[in-house]
Amino acid sequence: MPRPTQRHFSNKRLIPEKRLVMMMRKLTKFNHTMGFQITHSNKPKKVKPFSCPNNDDDNNGGTNGGSLIPDDVPGYASWLEKHPSALNMFDSITKEAKGKKVVVFLDYDGTLSPIVDDPDKAFMSAEMRMAVREVAKHFPTSIISGRRRERVKEFVQLSNVYYAGSHGLDIMAPPRAVKACDKKGNEGAFQPAKLFLPAIQEMSIELEDTIREIQGARIEDNKFCISVHYRQVPPKDHEMLKEKVQSLVGNRPNIRLTEGKMVLEVRPSIEWNKGDALNYLLDTLGFSNAKDVLPLYIGDDRTDEDAFKVIASRREGFPIIVSSIPKDTIAWFSLRDPSEVLAFLLRLAKWKKSEIHFFK
């Protein structure tokens, strides 16, 4: 499809979903001013606010916060010309998708849930869960995260989606869909880096010892990759932490180091990423050779760019970046924060429902 543009769209007439997003942001600003934030666990409550992310953070928004970046952030308007809002371009997207098979892929942190100081508290809202459930009723839907697959499933709590953890190194199908099986026919996960697991587990122990003395540093064992979070590490210690981790990884032939948003990722040195996971899932669903398939991927992190590349190479589909600041990306469309992701997913499900009713 041709590169999108939003120059012909007017900001004077806001769609209902955009009004919802603006209302959520205003409510957030009020709570922030009053010294509260809204959590999105199963029992919402007001708690003391978490620390505001730095302006150089790749994602400063969330379903519980909206964007904390002002609308006049330098360069954002011109960036939107190149990566127009998927909400503003929704009619063009659905026009392209009409009569075709849309397959949905979603990142978790920063996309379905807010970016928070404590990774264990990155809860998705009940509204977001409902939206994902509705989307999955109408489109094959997968969540591809850098987290441990079991942990993502605990957060999402839905049985009608695929779960891919460790940046796609650990993939499991939902109960009533195509199942991954071992040679004996037993249901199991697809794990292309299984042979690397002992090396990853050994590295996890060494990393714990290495960063123990660094204030705010945290290790997250994601099974096939290890995340070293430094969001709560004092800025003056960031380089020291990176040097320690880089020194530990060294030139080990079976381990490599990548970097995300305030996190270092220790991963197996295998040519496999979220883009490969996307292709694997399309193949598992029987869509690999179909010409009428349009993958739709929404993500906010550098690791999601691999999935965007796969869609861009197909020249059909919808790569959507979640960001409240200008950033380098090959995504064609954008959403500002998880609140806009929520609005987009709700609208996508509503569109499909109306299309189904029309043909009945």
Automatic annotation (TrEMBL):
Catalyzed reaction equations: alpha,alpha-trehalose 6-phosphate + H2O = alpha,alpha-trehalose + phosphate
Leading EC class: hydrolase
Example of a GO biological process term: trehalose biosynthetic process
Co-factor requirement: a divalent metal cation
UniProtKB keywords: Hydrolase, Stress response
Pathway this chain belongs to: Glycan biosynthesis; trehalose biosynthesis
Known role: Removes the phosphate from trehalose 6-phosphate to produce free trehalose. Trehalose accumulation in plant may improve abiotic stress tolerance.
Family the UniProt entry places it in: Belongs to the trehalose phosphatase family.
Matching NCBIfam families: HAD-SF-IIB (TIGR01484), T6PP (TIGR00685)
Name of the protein: Trehalose 6-phosphate phosphatase
Organism: Gossypium barbadense (Sea Island cotton)
